[in-house]
Amino acid sequence: MREEEFAKFLINDNQINSKDKAVRSRISKARLVEDRFNVNLDQIVKDDKKVYDLLNWIKEELKDSNGAIQNSVRKYYIFVNKIAFPTLSKYEKNNLISR
């Protein structure tokens, strides 16, 4: 993960109000994901199927009921790809995945 660049991206994000705390929190959660699942977010966000799988792992393994950890991955996806990752249900529908 490119932490410094990601931090600058988050600081410039108009949707984030409390810049210092929110930026640190998202970076911390992204680091947690990389460590917990032994992945590199730069590699993951290049492949939508890997992002989808990672978001599901986070939901199931980390009991991310409020979506805060998933949000850090989604923000990183936007940082790298300049577009938002679809909701899990929309991704499933568009890729004919049944759960």
Could you write a compact summary of the structure shown?
The protein is 68% helix and 0% strand. It has 99 residues and is mainly α.
Q: How would you portray this structure in words?
A:
The structure is a single chain. The protein is an all-alpha fold and 99 residues long. 68% of the residues lie in helices and 0% in strands. It has helices spanning 3-11, 19-37, 41-44, 48-61, 68-81, 88-94. Helix 1 (3-11) runs antiparallel to helix 2, helix 2 crosses helix 5 and helix 4 packs antiparallel against helix 5. The longest helix has 19 residues, at 19-37.
SSE inventory with pairings:
Blueprint lengths: L2 H9 L7 H19 L3 H4 L3 H14 L6 H14 L6 H7 L5
Notable traits:
mainly alpha, single chain, globular, 99 residues, 68% helix
The helix count comes to 6
Instruction: Specify the overall morphology.
Output: globular
SSE arrangement, N to C: HHHHHH
For the termini, the CA-CA separation is: 30 Å
Round the Cα radius of gyration to an integer and report it: 13 Å
Percent strand equals under 5%
The overall average pLDDT, rounded, is 92
Largest sheet: none
Q: Which residues form runs of ≥5 with pLDDT under 50?
A: none
Total number of beta strands: 0
- Structural class comes to mainly alpha
- Oligomeric state of the chains in view: single chain
**Approximately how much helix is present in the residues?**
55-70%
Number of domains: 1
